[in-house]
Amino acid sequence: MCIRRQVLLCSVAALLAAALALDEEMAELARMLRESCAEETGVELRLVDEVNAGAALPPDDKLKCYIKCVMETAGMMSAGAVDVEAVVAMLPDDMRAKNEGALRACGSRAGADDCDTAYRTQLCWQQANPADYFLI
Hints:
Elements: H1 2-19, H2 24-41, H3 45-52, H4 61-73, E1 77-78, E2 81-82, H5 84-90, H6 93-106, H7 114-128
Antiparallel strand pairs: 1-2
Helix pairs in contact: 1-2, 2-4, 4-7, 5-6, 6-7
């Protein structure tokens, strides 16, 4: 489990790498996280792609649990709450400068269950800064 967790934590860095056009190895780790959580939840990845193309997060139950999977695996969420400090700490300086205020203002948005909490928190982030928002 620890080795898997380390690989998937690196995957969060890959998400940032993809967003910032960094190296291929990091992008591969993001792909692994995406595939693992998609398989676990059964989400239609076209929903993730549509969100990354600018669509609003749809209230799809499988997408909500996909978001939770990504966040938990990356160490951004545990015990049913988003760890905003962990999220802020993972961001590169330029992204932190643009997003830290909104991330802190949103905090962890409690939902009906852990999947809904992850979704509601991400929805707040998306609404606060749609230009920089993306999912793995």
